[in-house]
Amino acid sequence: MKQLRMSKRVEVNYAAVFKSDSSSVDGVIEQMSEGGLSFSSSAVLDTDSVGLFVFSAIDGEPPVSVRGELVYMLPGMQGKEPGYATSQYGVRFIETTGEQYENIIKIVRFATVRQRYTASKKRPLISIIADD
């Protein structure tokens, strides 16, 4: 079992399922690091819940399963539709095996490269206008 350290979070957008003993909840992973992730869902979950996060991050690769513990919740604001609110949960990875740890590192590195590439494409272009 590897001990994961927290590192810089990278912005991601992965559909995920959180499976605990009592339920299975759909949501989105919005940020990820080597030590945890940020999970958003319209479902109400208890902090200190432990479960399995299953998500697919890289095309052509099998889905990744990682155990995590919900350590905090930021309550959601009401959306445009009545009765719909999305809460954000902070998750710490626990009980990771060597293979799971390697998968997490691979996904974080992949997301970091993609984020840097995307950021470089958003730089404003300088245009020169000649006066006639």
Describe the structure.
There is one protein chain. The chain is 18% helix and 37% strand. It has 132 residues and is an alpha+beta fold. It has a single domain (10-121), classed as Thrombin, subunit H (Beta Barrel), CATH 2.40.10.220. A 6-stranded antiparallel beta barrel has the order 1-2-3-6-5-4. The relative contact order is 0.20.
Structure described in brief:
With 132 residues, this protein is of the alpha+beta class. It has one helix at residues 98-121; strands spanning 10-19, 24-32, 36-41, 50-55, 64-74, 87-93. The protein has a six-stranded antiparallel barrel.
CATH architecture: Beta Barrel
Distance between the termini: 70 Å
Shape: globular
One letter per element, helices H and strands E, the order comes to EEEEEEH
Structural class: alpha+beta
Strand content: 35-45%
pLDDT averaged residue by residue:
79
Biggest sheet statistics? 6 strands, antiparallel, barrel
Helical content, roughly?
A: 10-25%
CATH topology: Thrombin, subunit H
CATH class: Mainly Beta
Number of helices: 1
What number of domains?
A: 1
Report the radius of gyration as a whole number of Å: 18 Å
CATH H-level superfamily = predicted glycosyltransferase like domains
Question: How are the strands of the largest sheet arranged?
Answer: 1-2-3-6-5-4
Low-pLDDT segments = 125-130
Number of strands: 6
Keywords:
6 strands; disordered C terminus; single chain; 6-stranded antiparallel beta barrel; alpha+beta; Thrombin, subunit H; 132 residues; 37% strand
Q: Strands, helices and their partners?
A:
Blueprint lengths: L9 E10 L4 E9 L3 E6 L8 E6 L8 E11 L12 E7 L4 H24 L11
Antiparallel strand pairs: 1-2, 1-4, 2-3, 3-6, 4-5, 5-6
